[in-house]
Each structure stands twice: as structure tokens, then as C-alpha cells.
Amino acid sequence: MADPADPNATPAEAESRSAEDREAAPGGSDTEISARAGGTEHILNQDKIDSLLGFDVGDGETQDKSGIRAIVNSALVSYERLPMLEIVFDRLVRLMTTSLRNFTSDNVEVSLDNITSIRFGDYLNSIPLPAVLAVFRAEELNNYGLFTVDSNLIYSIVDVLLGGRRGTAAMRIEGRPYTTIERTLVQRMIEVILADMCQAFEPLTPVSFTLDRLETNPRFAAIASPTNAAILVKLRIDMEDRGGHIELMLPYATLEPIRKLLLQQFMGEKFGRDSIWESHLATELWSTRVEIDAILDEQRLPLNRVMNLEVGQTIMLNAGPDSPIELRCGGVPLLKGRMGRIGSAVAVRIEGVVKRTDPPNIF
Questions:
Q1: Which of 2, 148, 191, 273 meets the CB 3.0–4.6 Å disulfide criterion with 13?
Q2: pLDDT tens for residues 192-216?
Q3: Stretch (H or E) spanning 150
Q4: What superfamily would CATH give domain 289-309+316-363?
Q5: pLDDT value at residue 203
Q6: Which H or E element spans position 248?
Q7: Contacts of 238 (CB under 8 A, 6+ apart)
Q8: How many angstroms separate the CA atoms of 25 and 10, rounded?
Q9: How many angstroms separate the CA atoms of 153 and 238, rounded?
Q10: Residue 300: helix, strand or coil by DSSP?
Q11: What would the CATH number be for the domain defined by 76-262?
């Protein structure tokens, strides 16, 4: 059979071969034309779809969310808008390091891994089981918070408190519920941490944190709506060759009563109050000179009479030598007294204070 590209082929054979090629590859000519006109065709694979939706493969906690998921989560309030939170949690880490060393009689190091914002329902679904969930109550804030203790930390605490040997990893038994002894030891550790939280919040505002209950099923530890935003604080507790993680979950509804305090930029002993400056300002205020007016009498005159006043005219006052005099500062009545004389100067003897029922209008 002749090749259509053969220069020696007859026109009939070349046309017949071209028809056979079109029948063998239907749409082939259209594809070639589309490729020439529109360029290469873009096809979305699974990786591009995941990137578009914001479900990138990897550690989502360390990556910045993008795509549709970022739009959905845009309503979450970042903890960075509450600068005082990071200072409070840094103080909590220092207090926990000291208290847990006294609690375990071991070398304990507590570190703050990260602080993130997350929806409460997403967090409950991501808790690795088995774990112990401690629900606590913030009395002054009238709301709840949540501690999550992972199994590694639970077995490490039990091993340390019951005299386990150093240098050996804590024994971990899967597939059984936590015993009463394990739950009791974890409860004691949570109570120690809650006492540290009270001290951490003390410079900001007095808050009493009390343990409400311990749960092992996340469904029974629901303290907020699944769509509510919350702050997740991840802490790492190391006891030489043992340790684990503990996570603190605080819904934004719990922090709402002290939101204004958490918005402060700096944390001082009294949060911005400077006793030296206050003392200096009070001293300057007490030494400030003010003008005092002694009012003998007041009269209301028609405007035309005031406009026609001339030099030499006399205005009769309804006041005598024994009439009371009112002392004013900036138009505000302060004192009352009697007019007199000391040497060659006219003086006023104070007899009482003017009682005001309404706030003065000095503007």
C-alpha cells in the first residue's frame, strides 16, 4: 500500500489514505486545531483540587490555610488580636514548670508549642484516643474550658508518681480503659495546673478555675457549639526520657468578659498604671493656681438697657454689708461666706460649702 507521504503516490491513493486516517482517528483533526488555537489543555489533578479547597497534604497546623477553607475560617478571631493571652500563657508555663517539679519530685520541663484558633467541633474530631479530657469551670467568667491529656503523658505521670525507674519508657497498654488510680493521679495533676492558671491570670483579673469532671469520650466533653471559635494552646511536658502533651482549649465565649483586658499591648504590675506618674500629677494638681470669683449680686437686665449704658450711670445691687457672698471657680459654685475687711484689703470669711445635687455644667 502506498504511503500518503510518498511523493511517487498517485493523487487518488493519497486522498484514500487521508480518508482512512480520519476514520481511524475520529476528531483527530479537531484536536490538532484546538491545540494550535487554544494551546495546551489544563486538567485539574487531585493535588490541584486539594490546594484549591485548602486541604493540602501535610501538617495543616503548621501550614497557612488557603483556598475555600481560608474563606470559611476567616470568621475565626486570631489570638494575635489578644496580645495579653501570650503573656498569660508564658507566665503559665513558668508556673507549671515549678509546680510540676514539686508535684513529681522530678526534673520537669514545660514548653509552649503553639497557640492557634480552631473551631470547637474540628478540635473534638481531631483528639487522638485514648485520652483524658478534663472539663473545668471559670467561676468569674461563668463558662467552661477543656484540658486534653494524651496517653503518653498519662502513663508517664503514673510511672513517675508510683516510683518507676528512670531510663525506661513508660509502659503503655492499649485497648483498656484507664483505671481509678490513673484517673485519680491525672486529676491531681490537673488540679495543680488549674491552680497555676489562677496565678497566671491574677495580674490581669482574678479568676478561679475549678475542675468539673473527667471524661474519656469527647462527645461527653462538649462545652460549646461545634461551630464556635476557640483558642487551642499546646503544651509539651518533658520528664527526662518521659513526657507527653497537654492541650488547653478555651472558647472565645469564655474570654469575652475580659476581652478588653486581653487587648492591652503591655502587661505591667497594674497594667499601665504608673504610681510615680500618678503621685507627680496629684502634686501638680494641688499646686495649680485657679481664679476664684466672689459674687456679690446678680441681676437680669433687658438687652436695650444694657446697650444704652453710659459712663457715669449707677447700677443698684440688692446686697448690703451683711449679705452672703458666693465664691465660684470657673462658674461652679463652691463656697459661701461674708464680706469683710482685713487692713486695707476687702476679704471674705468662709462660712460653708455649697451643696450641689446636679453635676456642674462647665462647658
A1: 2
A2: 999 999 999 998 889 999 999 999 9
A3: strand 143-150
A4: SpoA-like (2.30.330.10)
A5: 87
A6: strand 242-251
A7: 108, 109, 110, 111
A8: 23
A9: 9
A10: coil
A11: 3.40.1550.10
Q: 138's torsion region: left (phi>0), alpha (psi -120 to 50) or beta?
A: beta
Which residues make beta-bridge pairs with 125? none
pLDDT tens for each residue of 215-243: 999 999 999 988 888 999 999 999 888 88
- Cα distance between residue 120 and residue 231, in whole Å: 9
User: Contact at 8 Å (CB) between 235 and 110?
Assistant: yes
Nine-digit cell at 289? 493656681
User: Could you tell me which residues come within 8 angstroms of residue 25 by beta carbon, excluding any fewer than 6 positions away?
Assistant: none
Residue 130 in contact with residue 218, Cβ under 8 Å? Answer: no
- Please state the φ and ψ torsions of residue 123, each to the nearest 5 degrees: -70, -45
Nearest one of 229, 244, 217 to 133, comparing CA atoms = 217
Does residue 128 surpass a pLDDT of 90?
A: no
**Sequence spans of domains, the chain:** 46-75, 76-262, 289-309+316-363
Identity of the residue numbered 147: F
Write the pLDDT tens digit of every residue in 261-316.
Answer: 888 776 544 445 667 888 888 888 888 888 988 888 888 889 998 898 889 888 88
